[in-house]
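Input chain follows. Return structure tokens only.
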Amino acid sequence: MPSISSTDGTSLYYEETGAGDPVLFIHEFAGNHRTWAAQIDILGKTRRCIAYSARGYWPSDVPLRDDAYGQEIALGDAVAVLDALGIERAHIVGHSMGAYTALHLGLNHPDRCISVAALGCGWGSHPDERETARALCEDIATMFREKPIADSAATYARFPMRHTFEARDPGGFAAFEEILGGLSPEGAALTMLNLQRDRPTLWDLEEKLKNFAPPLLVLVGDEDHPCLDGSLFLKRTVPTAALQIVPRTGHTITMEEPHIVNMALDNLFNAASAGTWMDYRVDRNS
């Protein structure tokens, strides 16, 4: 299986399709490299698309230590994938957990980013919800450790922000639940505790985000209520941000509305590569 070694020796599985400008896809907590199939199937016809499974997600390695997980480590893994594949600059696309990592790439390595897309970003970030979100992370980690993975997957897949997906596309939802049910229980728990629970919030990053340089697309479903405030915060804070809200769509946006996601990403990639992303920006101070 194709894999690269991160800086601490952790093996990261990846898949690659197509040629052209590179696109690096970084998945959400409830997924792996497979959750980008609908994007890679289309965008891989004109671009070099790379999707990898994060540490803790088979077939990548699953370290069994708390200190092997965290936001800085996730950032280092994404950079390690780019380095190992000889990619100097790429379009960086992240969903939910992966969107935070994509933003950190844009903040810390803007020279490596042609553009950045943050899909379904913001869960657990709002200051009023922070402690509740941290407690929920601990409950979710306990669930993954103590219950059969099929039961944990069935529960997590049916959180309210995913209800529209199951109602609209039962077959697609079943495929999503099957991916979730194939996760490593311990990898999921360690990721939830040490990355999801303890990462900096968007509000923690506010001053840095004011100087975010790469073109940024913020994409969110209007039924993805935990991520709406964070997405609006990014639009209001990041000078290069554009916001697209998709009607009647929940958190699993990459699988629930792949056509809309693909069109939005294609527009971002084209404008960023052509240097026209900021051509229609309105001066907020005028």
